[in-house]
Design goal:
The complex is a heterodimer of chains A (244) and B (462). Chain A is mainly alpha-helical and 244 residues long. Among the domains of chain A are: 64 residues, no CATH class; 51 residues, no CATH class. Helices cover 70% and strands 0% of the residues of chain A. Chain A is built from 13 helices and no strands. In chain A, helix 8 packs antiparallel against helix 9. In chain B, strands 3-2-1-6-5-4 form a six-stranded antiparallel beta sheet, sandwiched between helices. In chain B, helix 2 packs parallel to helix 4 and helix 14 crosses helix 15. The longest helix of chain B is centred in the N-terminal third of the chain and has 62 residues. Chain B is elongated and about 145 Å long. Chain B starts with a helix and ends with a helix.
């Protein structure tokens, strides 16, 4: 049979088949034989972004109900819901407010669990996430930023671990305290803690201060320290203006 | 169990042969089954060949021969020669059974092998399915992956020409936020004559970021970008000292926005995540602005026309004097491209009654809402004006013939009648009269168009 007809024939006869709304439904329908493989491929490639208007509130419900709501998605949804609270339609604004509440409760529960386990590092990370989620509310952001610093306070006479340093640096960024971040980096340097990620953190501070020359120098340093993975592209960009 | 499996065949051989021998000994006066050529003994290996295969059939054969040989002990009286046919028959049968068994076992082996393969494949498919389900779920729920989709970009770009300039610029700033992660960004309009840049739109700014809404074009990065028509990226300050002197601190990416041959202004990105500052971000910004320029051009031109013009204070709509002027410009353009221009005038016939009941201010607000409906009906970029009378609105359409304009007028009437209107606090009915005229190839003047449209309305009044 003509391969063209096999594939594109599905589109021509779209109405004869079950029309799944979600990718998971398409996968289940395909496994059950209610949808050809072309149908699954078509659904996958035609996925409507949830942020596209008109909004599909059922899609928002599905995502919020998911056990593994990833932080990146939560952050984007928070931004959207904050904008939506200003919508002229009361129902839409109310939905947005409730959704914001839901996301905050989701993380508040995790904070409570981490507190009960006395897991300081996890607690600090969660506070930091809450600070980022409340980026548009300076007072709340500041509160969570300070809590993150409190929770990640290093134990006396214990050497600073890299992950603690990075967490505290992120908290200072959230609190918009670049001087304190720089001071922490200097302390780490004095204590002999050297790592490409710390150099990159220093480069980030220079970037935010508009010191392009210093950024380029620090990128070279990070490269010589062996920065790899996703940072390699960034380093190459600053060194050559191109990404390899 | 192991003991049972290991020693069972041996026990079976022994038991069966013992049984045959015992039967031979007590029931038959036929030592070694001589009259049958010893067949019962020589059939036992064939039996074991069928169930257990070559090895155990050899054991059974050995055991049979041992049992048979007991009959040849001194005083047994058995003729060995008479047992040979039986032996040969037993051997032949055993060989045949072994052959058939091996055929059967081969087939069984093939089925087993195929079954193993299928089970293995099934297992792999299950794993693939589970993985696919996870990927599908992730694709659906991972919004970060969805939001930078091309489709999202296209829809945003298509939405640009539906609003006014501030709305369009905000949409672009949102796209910049979504596609390159810009946390703070702004548009500055270039005023070449005054050598300054005026803040036109911003996104992500906090209270502390708000400062003067103008900045000089000399000695600043945005000014340099406007004068040279070249984009600026912070990494350029590494290579050229000149930029370091211009204080690039709040200018991570500054790109010009062109309107035809001239530079309208700049888009400035003040803050973005360090890890996203990349060649991709630079390219993406260029793409967004290039694509947006086409939609922005008519909006900006319209804004330029309407800037500083008189408009009705209550409705915010431009006055009829501006309508006449713009019609003149549009007719010239229509003439050049040999198109057509239609002027549509909408009159609220019961305006006096409405004004008496609710007041002039309330009526003007109703007119403003009516203007919104007209704008939405006529399509993106349509401007609605006041007519010569206060209770009239007017708009122009391009490249529609008489039928097209008449159809538009009819559809408009239907939309107005189907909607409920309020004037003040009362729900009212709007009595609408519509007049129109069409100019082909720009061959009329604006006053004539307006007069003809008003005449049509007058006819309807009678």
């Amino acid at each position: 049979m003509d391969p063209f007809r096999l594939k594109f024939g599905y589109i021509q006869t779209l109405d004869r088949f079950f029309r799944p709304r979600t990718l998971n439904a398409a996968l289940k329908a395909m496994k059950a034989g209610a949808l050809p493989t072309e149908g699954f491929a078509w659904t996958m490639n035609s996925l409507k972004p949830v942020l596209e208007e008109p909004w599909d509130f059922r899609a928002f419900d599905r995502i919020l109900a998911s056990k593994e709501l990833d932080f990146g998605s939560a952050k984007i949804l928070m931004e959207l819901f904050e904008r939506m609270t200003g919508h002229p339609d009361f129902e839409t604004a109310l939905y947005a407010a409730e959704s914001i509440n839901f996301i905050e409760s989701h993380y508040a529960k995790k904070i409570h669990q981490a507190s009960a386990l006395a897991d300081g590092w996890m607690l600090a990370r969660l506070y930091l996430k809450m600070a980022v989620l409340n980026a548009s509310r300076p007072s709340i952001r500041r509160y969570y930023g300070l809590e993150a610093l409190k929770a990640s306070r290093p134990e006396p006479r214990r050497p600073l671990k890299l992950q603690d340093l990075l967490l505290r640096l992120a908290a200072y960024r959230v609190l918009e305290q670049p001087d304190r971040a720089l001071s922490l980096l200097n302390q780490a340097e004095k204590a002999g803690v050297a790592h490409p990620r710390l150099t990159l953190a220093r480069a980030q501070l220079a970037f935010e201060a508009g010191r392009a020359g210093e950024v380029a120098r620090l990128m070279n340093l990070a490269r010589s320290q062996g920065a790899s993975g996703r940072y390699r592209k960034l380093i190459d960009f600053w060194n050559t203006g191109e990404q390899r | 169990m192991k003991f049972h499996r290991r020693y069972r065949p041996g026990l079976e051989i022994f038991t069966i042969l013992l049984l045959v021998w015992a039967v031979n000994l007590w029931f038959f006066k036929d030592p070694a089954y001589e009259s049958w050529s010893g067949l019962p003994y020589f059939l036992v290996p064939a039996l074991f060949a069928g169930f257990y295969g070559t090895f155990l059939s050899l054991w059974a054969a050995g055991a049979s021969l041992l049992i048979v040989s007991l009959w040849f002990l001194p005083g047994g009286g058995t003729d060995v020669g008479r047992l040979v046919p039986g032996f040969l028959a037993g051997l032949t049968l055993t060989t045949l059974v072994l052959f058939l068994r091996s055929l059967f076992m081969d087939q069984t082996q093939r089925y087993r092998s195929r079954f193993r393969d299928l089970v293995g494949r099934n297992r792999r498919l299950e794993v693939e399915n589970a993985t696919l389900a996870v990927v599908a779920h992730t694709l659906e729920t991972r919004i970060a992956k969805q939001r930078r989709s091309l489709r999202f970009l296209v829809n945003k770009l298509n939405a640009l020409d539906r609003g006014n300039l501030p709305q369009a610029l905000e949409e672009i700033l949102e796209m910049v936020h979504i596609f390159i992660g810009a946390e703070k960004a702004s548009f500055w309009r270039y005023e070449a004559a005054e050598r300054s840049l005026v803040l036109t739109a911003f996104r992500g700014w906090e209270e502390s970021d708000r400062g003067p809404t103008t900045q000089p074009a000399d000695g600043t990065i945005p000014g340099w970008v406007c004068r040279n028509g070249q984009p600026f990226s912070l990494r350029m300050a590494v290579e050229q000292d000149h930029f370091s002197k211009l204080n690039p601190r709040h200018h991570l990416l500054t790109y010009p926005l062109r309107m035809g041959e001239r530079i309208w202004g700049v888009l400035n990105v003040e803050a973005m995540p360090f890890v996203q500052y990349s060649l991709h971000a630079e390219t993406m910004l260029e793409v967004i602005l290039k694509l947006a320029e086409k939609s922005l051009k008519p909006i900006i031109e319209r804004e330029l026309r309407f800037r500083d013009q008189e408009s009705n204070l209550r409705t915010g709509l431009p006055l009829a004097t501006l309508l006449i002027r713009i019609l003149g410009e549009e007719l010239l353009r229509t003439g050049q491209r040999q198109g057509s221009l239609s002027l549509v005038v909408i009159e609220v016939a019961n305006s006096e009654v409405l004004m008496d009941r609710a007041g002039a201010a309330a009526f003007q607000q109703t007119l403003a809402r009516l203007a919104t409906l007209l704008r939405n009906s006529a399509g993106p970029g349509t401007e609605v004006f006041h007519g010569r009378e206060d209770h009239q609105l007017a708009l122009y359409l391009t490249d529609r013939d008489t039928d097209g304009t008449a159809l538009f007028a009819l559809e408009l009437l239907g939309k107005i009648q189907s909607q409920s209107w309020t004037c003040g606090t009362e729900t009212v009915q709007l009595e609408i009269l519509i007049g129109y005229d069409i100019s082909r190839q720009g061959q009329d003047d604006p006053e004539k168009l307006l007069l003809n449209a008003e005449r049509l309305i007058q006819l309807q009044r009678q």
